[in-house]
């Protein structure tokens, strides 16, 4: 789907709303950036059209995160996620989203080699999904790439602090708590802002460090495991609704979908085995 057709789809849906439901204005990159220091930005991951439709009613931003490798595809980490995975899920999310800003992650191996490779792959993501922006992990090292993309029309959300794609060099998923590591993260955050990122995800850092970064940048900081000292928050949808076994310290569960699903499957199995399902109301009668 092209950007053009996405825009007309958004406009068509806005126009088709019931008269008493005010259409939400689609969130643009400048709108998102202008929320710095204002009402906190509500962000969630989404990987499918249906989840995107539900979250889009409320969220300011939907991230098609490469966490989909673990959450949807059962991978042990995000390193095996491909550009094709991101494009397929990005297309699904774009079919469900109307108002929220949709950002798609660039997966490991698709952007680090050179700014030119990053542009080629990011442009594919934008063209083939119709999303507005991409996100990439990296600080000072990725600043030239961020500059290259933003100057060529691809808005970039950066990602600093705990970077899951660097788990092998870091020796795992390690939150940044020790004060002697703070200056590096601050320098990364400043470098990505200076390179043109419109916002930055800060993952897994101590609260005073998140506060320092948020105060020192003019772009919104979006926290995950980075305290309330950020301009917005993001959670993985499945973590938030209780549909993924891993519960990191920073996740608050707002539901227990896993329990609901298990209960539904158990009751279905019982009724099938007892021949109580399907009932007459679920059964076609013959037509004369
Ligand atoms: O991939 C992802 O879901 C992310 C968020 C955790 C920020 O990068």
Automatic annotation (TrEMBL):
GO molecular-function term, one example from the UniProt record: methyltransferase activity
Pathways per UniProt: Cofactor biosynthesis; (R)-pantothenate biosynthesis; (R)-pantoate from 3-methyl-2-oxobutanoate: step 1/2
Keyword Lipoprotein on entry: no
Keywords attached to this entry: Cytoplasm, Magnesium, Metal-binding, Methyltransferase, Pantothenate biosynthesis, Transferase
CDD domains: KPHMT-like
Main subcellular localisation: cytoplasm
Active site: 203
Protein location: Cytoplasm
Residues engaged in binding Mg(2+): 66, 105, 137
EC number: 2.1.2.11
Alphabetical list of InterPro entries matching this protein: Pantoate_hydroxy_MeTrfase, Pyrv/PenolPyrv_kinase-like_dom, Pyrv_kinase-like_dom_sf
NCBIfam families xref list: panB, PRK00311.1
Family to which the UniProt record says this protein belongs: Belongs to the PanB family.
Protein name: 3-methyl-2-oxobutanoate hydroxymethyltransferase
Organism: Oceanomicrobium pacificus
């Amino acid at each position: 789907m092209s950007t053009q057709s996405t825009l007309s789809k958004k406009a068509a849906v806005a126009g088709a709303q019931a008269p008493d439901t005010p259409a939400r204005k689609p969130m643009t990159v400048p709108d998102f950036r202008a929320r710095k220091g204002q009402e906190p930005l509500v962000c969630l991951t989404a990987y499918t059209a249906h989840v995107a439709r539900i979250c889009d009613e409320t969220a300011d931003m939907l991230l098609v995160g490469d966490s989909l490798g673990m959450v949807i595809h059962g991978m042990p980490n995000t390193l095996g996620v491909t550009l094709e995975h991101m494009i397929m899920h990005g297309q699904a999310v774009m079919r469900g989203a109307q108002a929220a800003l949709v950002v798609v992650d660039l997966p490991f191996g698709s952007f680090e080699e050179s700014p030119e490779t990053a542009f080629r792959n990011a442009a594919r993501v934008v063209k083939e999904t119709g999303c507005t922006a991409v996100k990439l992990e990296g600080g000072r090292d990725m600043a030239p790439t961020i500059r290259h993309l933003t100057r060529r029309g691809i808005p970039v959300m950066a990602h600093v602090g705990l970077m899951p794609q660097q788990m092998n060099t870091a020796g795992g998923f390690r939150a940044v708590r020790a004060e002697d590591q703070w200056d590096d993260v601050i320098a990364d955050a400043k470098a990505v802002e200076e390179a043109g990122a419109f916002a930055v995800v800060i993952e897994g850092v101590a609260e005073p460090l998140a506060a320092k970064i948020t105060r020192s940048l003019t772009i919104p900081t979006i926290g995950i495991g980075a305290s309330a000292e950020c301009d917005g928050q993001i959670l993985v949808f499945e973590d938030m609704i209780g549909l993924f076994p891993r519960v990191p310290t920073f996740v608050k569960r707002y539901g227990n979908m896993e329990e609901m699903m298990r209960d539904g499957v158990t009751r279905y199995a019982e009724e099938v085995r007892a021949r109580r399902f399907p009932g007459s109301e679920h059964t076609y009668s013959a037509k004369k």
